[in-house]
Design brief:
Chain A: GO terms for molecular function: ATP binding. The complex is a heterodimer of chains A (about 250) and B (about 240). With about 250 residues, chain A is of the alpha/beta class. Chain A has 9 helices and 10 strands. In chain A, helix 2 packs across helix 3 (about 110-125), helix 3 (about 110-125) packs across helix 4 and helix 7 (about 220-230) packs across helix 8. In chain B, helix 2 (about 20-40) packs across helix 5 (about 90-120) and helix 9 (about 195-210) runs antiparallel to helix 10. The chains are: A alpha/beta (about 250), B mainly alpha (about 240).
């Protein structure tokens, strides 16, 4: 794990991204502190995934800079330090759960006993012990997305970028995963988690709200409620997204 | 490049294929059936002895090309390739892993097809068996490398499968299997000089016709290796860490 010594996990400056004919991110700037769980919220098509791809370093950007743990996003020093969960599961359907996680662990440089221990630990974390030797193609959608999450967790990266990790999961599992995210943050890992589920917003340290690629808010959950005058995250989010002059409040 | 990661990738590819019994059966049985049919068609003629060796060089190429182009297209589409390239896994580890896995399958395929051709279909082979297998493996790795490259130009699995006739048919017609390359019309002969399968078939013909390695055979094998390197180099350009 890279020690950030209190420095920010991610610094985005003047980032412009064009996908197809659309300017998905027009000149966005953002600082993500380290050791926190930062929730990335916003309506579908607001640029959450594109921002995450830029942070991981797989997105071609037009201009601007993204610095992750002190290095340019996507640079070789970060390949062990940044774990990325894509929205749709990117795993091998013709391998078992264990084989998938082992292979991604191996790609991160784990070997031997350390690899086996990391794989076993991760399978337990995503609650798939009883299915570990089943082929992924025989799993349900929710189980598949947990295997994909496990492949991001296995190397214990300093920064985890998780695109909707809890979609389609039952409440018990969602609670357990959020406890895991909180534990990781308590141990100095940084997490950026996008979500559609507003009750999860309350479990974040900070919330970043996007609309049409623009930063609508970068606040703590308490500040969000206070400034919108709403009692829950759902209503606060709606009032923020629907208020036409939203940007000016912040 | 990291040999450990190359091996891990080769092992992963083989594990994936292990769960697909039908594909394994097709890879192993189709060459034997085709060789058997051709031997039967040309029963009591000397033709099988002249085209049999070339066939042994054509099958590994076709089969590995199709399997690899579909497999890597899937990796591109499912996001697993993008994910791997965010890890310390290098492009070379990824590509050589595929080449090693399919090269290993090619050894088994070549042993089965060659044994079947020699002992069941009475193919006359003068050269040593191990040379034959070596050429078959080279050709298989060539098919894998071309498949890696071709997958970059396919957006769907339909297209990837259509690349088989598009990439392979011209090479198949001009490689010297149907008409010797030096008896082709001048233009076609020149075209066949720049197609990789021509050299695979040349090498196979040399190996089966002479009791020991010949200069011409080794030269053809070297050219096949050159095509493998070229195809892998071009394919590595199509594996980009960043996409739009």
């Amino acid at each position: 794990m890279i020690e950030t010594e209190g420095g920010p996990a991610v610094v985005v400056r003047g980032l412009n991204v064009v996908r197809g004919k659309r300017r998905v991110l027009p000149d966005i700037s953002l600082v993500v502190p380290s050791g926190q769980v930062v929730g990335l919220l916003g309506p579908s098509g607001s640029g959450k995934t594109t921002l995450m791809r830029a942070i991981v370093g797989v997105q071609i950007v037009e201009s601007g800079s993204v610095t992750v743990l002190g290095h340019a996003a996507g640079s070789a020093q970060l390949r062990r330090e940044v774990g990325y969960l894509t929205q749709s599961p990117s795993i091998y359907s013709d391998l078992t759960i264990r084989e998938n996680i082992r292979y991604f662990g191996r790609a991160l440089g784990l070997r031997g006993a350390a690899l086996t221990a990391a794989v076993d630990r991760t399978i337990t974390e995503v609650d798939l012990d009883s299915h570990a030797d089943q082929l992924v193609r025989d799993l349900s959608g929710g189980q598949e997305s947990r295997v994909s999450l496990a492949c991001a967790l296995v190397g214990r990266p300093t920064l985890l970028v998780l695109d909707e990790p809890t979609v389609g999961l039952d409440p018990v599992l969602r609670r357990d995963l959020w406890n895991l995210f909180r534990d990781l943050a308590a141990n100095g890992h940084s997490l950026i988690v996008s979500s559609h589920v507003m009750d999860e917003a309350a479990r974040c340290d900070r919330l970043v709200l996007l609309r049409e690629g623009r930063l609508l808010a970068d606040v703590t959950p308490a500040e969000l409620l206070e400034r919108t005058g709403e009692s829950d995250a759902d209503a606060a989010f709606l009032s923020l997204v629907e208020s036409t002059g939203g940007e000016e409040i912040w | 490049m990291n040999p450990g990661l190359t091996l891990a990738t080769a092992g992963r590819v083989l594990r994936q294929i292990r769960t697909d019994h039908r594909t394994i059966a097709l890879i192993m049985v189709v060459p034997m059936v085709s060789i058997g049919l051709i031997a039967w068609i040309y029963n009591n003629t000397p033709i099988f002895d002249s085209i049999g060796p070339a066939l042994l060089g054509v099958f590994p190429m076709i089969v590995m090309f199709v399997v690899t182009s579909v497999a890597t297209l899937r990796e591109r589409q499912s996001g697993t390739l993008e994910r791997l390239l965010t890890t310390p896994m290098g492009k070379a580890d990824f590509m050589l892993g595929y080449a090693a896995a399919f090269g290993l399958l090619a050894v088994v395929q070549a042993l089965l097809a060659t044994s079947f051709a020699i002992w069941v279909c009475d193919l006359d082979v003068v050269g040593p068996l191990w040379m034959l297998v070596l050429v078959a493996v080279l050709v298989a790795v060539l098919g894998t490398s071309l498949g890696l490259l071709a997958s970059a130009f396919a957006r769907t699995e339909f297209q990837a499968v259509q690349f088989m006739p598009a990439f392979i048919t011209p090479q198949f017609l001009l490689c010297g299997l149907l008409v010797d390359r030096d008896r082709l019309p001048d233009v076609l002969s020149a075209v066949s000089d720049v197609l990789p399968l021509s050299y695979a078939v040349d090498a196979m013909k040399e190996v089966t016709a002479h009791p020991e390695a010949t200069g011409a055979g080794l030269w053809s094998m070297a050219i096949v290796v050159g095509f493998i390197v070229l195809a892998l180099a071009l394919a590595s350009l199509t594996l980009s860490r960043r996409t739009p």
